[in-house]
Amino acid sequence: MCAAPKQGNTLIEVGNQTVIQGQVWHDGAPVAGAYVRLLDSTDEFTAEVVTSPEGEFRFFAAPGEWKLRSLAQVGKGERVLAAEVGLNETTLVIE
To answer: What is the reported pLDDT for 1?
Structure first.
């Protein structure tokens, strides 16, 4: 069983954590069931979650530069972001 927290619109207390969350989109709609991978600055795999029915994902990470990569039946997308302590929201668009 996966130990990842349940994905969704639930409010979380961020405190001094670094949270990376967002949605995966394709053709103007959220993508459910997409795999979202979290890679560190050297492209090493760190974690993976599956998007919720609303295309949402969430990771708890350390501050720094991260790469998000989405993989779905409709294609793939990628985004690099510099995450800081607190809530870091982003959108991954599948081309």
So the answer is: 43
